[in-house]
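Budget justification, computational time. The allocation requested in the original proposal was used primarily to generate structure tokens for proteins on the priority list. As evidence of use, we reproduce two of the resulting records. The first is shown immediately below.
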Amino acid sequence: ICEVLEQDPRPASQRGKQREYGVLLWEMNVRWLVEDTVFTVLSVTKKVPEE
């Protein structure tokens, strides 16, 4: 997760904006907040299986 966030996975048009982001990695939903160059992971939850 740290290595992915180090690459700044936000869309280029979103860089510089302070807000919450999320990405699905290895069946885990990762939510994070970015302020300047500091990424803070808010939650990591297992993806809910689709029925």
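The second record produced under the same allocation is shown here.
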Amino acid sequence: MGKVCWKKKSKFFDLEYWKYLHVRHVLDVMHIEKNVCDSIIGTLLEIPGKNKYGIAARLDLLNMGVKTDLQPEYGQRRTRLPPGPWNLSSAEKKAVCNSFYGMKVLKVYESAKRVCSERTRPEGCIAERYIAEEAVEFCTEHLSDVSTVGVPSSQKMGVSKPLSGCTVSLVDRDLLNQAHLYVLENTEEVLPYIEEHMIHIKTTYPKFRKRTKWLQDKHNSTFIQWLHFKVQSELNGEEHNGVSENLRWLAAGPSMAVPSYRSYLINGVKFNTKAQDDVRTVQNSGVYLLAHTMQVASAKDKNPIVSNMGFYGVIQEIWDLDYQKFRIPVLRLWARQIKN
């Protein structure tokens, strides 16, 4: 037990003040290197905010009585700083920047060496290997129902389950219809019915067939009820074999009693409500959505533009909509449009 297991003495104990520190701080080598590099490069290239020989530094040197030839020269209109031995001309600054721009570090060569299989023609071989990797990556991302080989994936991918207790409550009918409509609009099996409903509206209201916003508002307010009766008529008729079990329960709508969770795992990604994040260190309540939606300048705008819009949202509630045979989690957000 008397054997000393620590044999190496830290080099920092050679510092005069180190032994007097009550809490010996940890020096971050990465940030020290960055700060030193910023100071040197900023001084050589005279970058504003990074130059360590500005007016304040030169006045300090003047107070110390050193390098008096570098003291500021005050004129009527501006203050001039005499050039020091480190100052570079414009051509020399461009040469320094070009040198850094064309510099290749060892890590770049190491990564390129791994994809080189033909040593006699390394450049062409590396280019072909990169093209092959990009082609394979493109296929894995854009081909559906394909299992990848050699591409690592998370074990939680595809897993959806609640991570906290729930609170069941009766929600407002309008809010529930908004959530239900969002589920329908993002279900591939419902897309043909959406197109059919839009044609039905244009046929029923021919005067409004060119008013895009009016058609969209009419669709949003009537599609849920229309789909319910449409699916019921197909089930009662000869086309009942074409209606799947999922579509049948989707058309019936979710239960009014909605479980609400503070934390939920959706497709392997953890989501928390804002209230849950307020008592946690790691934040998982912020989400971003790129939506293909309609942009309206005002209530009187008759020519809205349909395009992609980005929205940033903070999760307020996580609902688990109950469709009897299955459940679908949805996020209720406070959202704001992101401009530019």
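A brief technical remark on that second record: The chain has three domains: 26-99, 113-140, 161-296+303-338.
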